[in-house]
Amino acid sequence: MSESTFSPAGEQNLTNIPSKRKLGKSLPPKVIIKLGKFIWTTLWHMMMSKIAPRNQSGEYIRPSSQFRNFIGTQEGNPYKPAAGRYNLIVGMSCPWAHRTLVVRSLKELSEAISVTIVSPSPLEGGWVFNQQYEGCRTLAEFYNLAEPGYTGRSTVPVLWDKQTRTIVNNESAEIIVMLSEFNEFAKNPTLNLYPEELKEKIDWWNEKIYNSVNNGVYRCGFAQTQEAYNQVCDELFATLDEIDAALATSRYLCGNTVTLADVRLFTTLFRFDIAYHGLFKCNRRRIQDYHNLGPYLRDLYQIKGVADTCDLESVKKDYYGNLFPLNPGSIIPLGPDITYLLEPHGRERIGSRE
Ligand SMILES: N[C@@H](CCC(=O)N[C@@H](CS)C(=O)NCC(=O)O)C(=O)O
């Protein structure tokens, strides 16, 4: 809304308010706008600095994850692979947690690795367990149980070791590597999402996709200056254009086989038209309007087990309802209808999935 279109909409209702309180009537619109803008902008920056630390030019800087142990069979490693020992804590709206669910589903690890779901609490400003877990109500309490005095972010996903009661790892990029090597307990052990011969290519895509796309959408949404937003939005769409071009001749990012690079891209693409396009102002184009990215998203969505990990309602509710500084009214949009994700994708013509 521009300043010139401002009209105190509640003016008629003010007639029942004692005259001393008719602030809206006594102050000229210009003053109300200036005052409102000043108060809101100051509050907005204060709140944004809590949810989204920024650098000097107003660009969002994502804090790094702090629990970085690996599950493995090496001597001396206390975290040995085992069925029933580890638990994944996830929020259904979170794209980083979603990656771990996709890998767990593709590798058919649901009997070996359990899942606990947390939901965001707008009042507490963090995740809370749907049912108490390890005696904790909030994820912040849980992080403190794992590491007393912990003051970092209490993020999902978390890979929890029930045996030693410690957080093994809270970095999704590493958890998905660990899970894809859990073959002994997987019902789909032959699927290799990180094959040796493709590692270099997967890592190359990963780096590009993390900065400009996975984190790029957040950098757009959390930018605190116009310049920072312009720059990251350009970078995001330049990368999406580049990926779209690559997908013209390659069924998946690294050929005819699905890899961790696709998993990482998928969870951001799934949320793009639903939340990032509107709430994060990533609106130069929708994914479904891309010539190759749209069908590619449908292709991945239709792989057995993937759609079950996608929770449209949580994505809408959590992004629009909980990121207060970006959507103060917390109105959750009715759309989009995502049944198009089930339409034929036609990607077989590029190559058959291996
Ligand atoms: N680097 C982490 C990032 C995870 C992350 O930022 N998760 C968000 C939800 S989408 C979160 O839990 N945020 C809570 C907070 O920052 O307090 C990963 O990839 O695992």
Can you walk me through this structure?
- The chain is an alpha+beta fold and 354 residues long.
- It has 3 domains: 3-51, no CATH class; 86-185, Glutaredoxin; 196-349, Glutathione S-transferase Yfyf (Class Pi), Chain A, domain 2.
- 38% of the residues lie in helices and 9% in strands.
- It is built from 10 helices and 6 strands; from the N terminus they run ααβαβββαββαααααα.
- It has helices at residues 23-26, 29-51, 95-106, 139-146, 172-179, 199-221, 226-246, 260-276, 293-301, 312-322; strands at residues 86-91, 114-121, 126-133, 136-138, 158-161, 166-169.
- It has a 6-stranded mixed sheet, sandwiched between helices.
- α3 runs parallel beside α5 (172-179), α3 crosses α8 (260-276) and α6 runs antiparallel to α7 (226-246).
- It is globular and about 75 Å long.
- The termini are far apart.
- The model is unreliable at 1-15 (pLDDT under 50).
- Residues 65, 94, 96, 126, 153-157, 170-173 line the site of glutathione (GSH).
Which tags fit this structure?
single chain; 354 residues; alpha+beta; Glutaredoxin; Glutathione S-transferase Yfyf (Class Pi), Chain A, domain 2; 6-stranded mixed sheet; 10 helices; 6 strands; 38% helix; 9% strand; globular; binds glutathione
Stated plainly, the CATH topology of the largest domain is called Glutathione S-transferase Yfyf (Class Pi), Chain A, domain 2
- The topology string of helices and strands comes to HHEHEEEHEEHHHHHH
Number of individual domains: 3
**Count of separate DSSP helical elements:** 10
Helix-and-strand structural type: alpha+beta
Number of strands: 6
Would you identify the regions where 5 or more consecutive residues have pLDDT less than 50?
1-15
- Provide the residue-averaged pLDDT: 90
Second rung of CATH, namely the architecture of the largest domain: Up-down Bundle
Ligand identities: glutathione
Fraction of residues in H or I helices: 25-40%
Could you say which overall geometry the principal axes of the C-alpha atoms support?
globular
The CATH class designation of the largest domain is: Mainly Alpha
How far is it from the N-terminal to the C-terminal residue, by CA? 51 Å
Strand order of the largest sheet: 4-3-2-1-5-6
Radius of gyration (CA) equals 23 Å
What percent strand? Answer: 5-15%
